[in-house]
Amino acid sequence: MNPDYRLHHPKWHRQRMPIFWWLGKLSFTKFITRELTCLAVAYAVLLLLAEIVIMAHSEGAHERFLRLLAAPPVLAFHLLVCAALVFHTVTWLNLAPKALVVRLGGRRLPDWAVVAGHYTLWLAASVAVVWLLRGIS
Amino acid sequence: MRPPREPFFWALFSAGGMLTALVLPAAALYLWVSRPLGWVAAPTHAALMAHVASPLVRVALFVLIALGLFHWAHRFRYTLYDGLQLSHLYGLIATICYGGATLLTVFAAWTLWRFP
Amino acid sequence: MAETISLQVQRYRPEQEAEPTWQSYEVPLRRDWMVLDGLNHVKDELDGTLSYRWACRMGVCGSCGMMVNGKPVLTCATYLSALAPGPIKIEPLRGFPVVRDLVIDQSDFVEKLRSVKPWIVRDEDKPLAEGEYLQTPEELAEYKPYSMCINCLLCYAACPIYALEPGFVGPAAIALAQRYNLDSRDDGEADRLEILSRHDGIWACTFVGECSAVCPKGVDPAGAIQRYKVSAAAGWWRSVLMPWGTR
Lengths: 137, 116, 247
Prior knowledge:
The complex is a heterotrimer of chains A (137), B (116) and C (247).
Chain A: H1 3-7, H2 26-57, H3 59-70, H4 72-94, H5 96-99, E1 103-104, E2 107-108, H6 111-134
Antiparallel strand pairs in A: 1-2
Chain B: H1 6-37, H2 45-53, H3 55-83, H4 90-113
Helix pairs in contact in B: 1-3, 3-4
Chain C: E1 4-11, E2 21-28, H1 35-46, E3 65-68, E4 71-74, E5 88-91, E6 98-100, E7 103-104, H2 107-115, H3 137-147, H4 154-158, H5 160-164, H6 171-181, H7 189-196, H8 210-214, H9 221-241
Parallel strand pairs in C: 1-5
Antiparallel strand pairs in C: 1-2, 3-4, 3-5, 6-7
């Protein structure tokens, strides 16, 4: 059939996608939530950048910044950010074996092994981050 | 009409996603929860300055910030296309996302270069 | 178990209505009946005007895909009793234009499938005298899951991106491209990469993952697409950083 004719065929019914299609199904809602964690990632790196700018400005400004971090609404918000970041990590690591096929000695590693490897990496990286941060004194 | 730059941005998104996934949760919990709550001793201003000034740390911070921003840019761009069905604003959204990420990355580079 | 169950079927007769409508049928609720058996009962005994596709009735031909209670399934593989007490909502597969009742137009998929060259592409054919191409079990295992695709289009119906993005090549087509890319006898990876890397072919995929969740054959198109993205990105970087090699 001529594909150009098909595109403008008057009688075929074309189903429309509702604008909030991602609210209709749990798996879709989880998907959109996972995607929106990128906002937490951007916020986190920008907050890091902000602290660098503030500490370069003056000690006083940095003190005020630290006090602001301790304010209850800010703290509560940052707990949400942390939760979002953890969700980002967990969803990312769980999907790792889909993209990464690891071969050791000619045999393909099973999915659970790839995931376990990634979680171990996360643990190691977290320990390293905390160790590095504690070393600043 | 759509130039073949997707693999480039996807690669940045992917690298940014992996790096931030491994590093950000621990860093966030330490810097923005444990530190303000006093669960860990807050480093002195002088010590922080000295550490951030080191070349290795500056590069590491730049990489983290840059990749994190480009991870956001690529992911958010597609979330807007699909979640709010704004594909018709393809060019505008791509410009805002990648352009925004680029500007902030340049600012981060400049800040870290001339630190303090 | 109740005697009957209600099927709420979406009807669309373009010659008499502008929009789809619903029609309910009571069919016997037999323990061993699939949704397809219910539809066949409707067609044979209740309403011969109902249009739908089916063939093998055993889950290998891929003809009988429909949305049952909002999920894309093979109607020959879905028990009526599993959906009791009902009513059971039956609609045509999402994401495709509806020709009539439960029949959709697949030409978009067929074109996209054709565009990925789903056949062995060789740089040079071996002469017949040299015999067949040999393949180890490990080489077969590399692409075997992707070869199980029966083109039933459930993955397309499940994919929100396919419904939103006209240029998206879609799960099954990309999985089938991978089936050939990963086949040790094939040399066509670069050809397919060129086609798929253009025009948002694969990059519109945001790894929702619903395609793999609904696939009746365990093809895992989501995994195929993610692996393809990795190899496409690597290929792109190679072409940028080492432009002198063409293959």
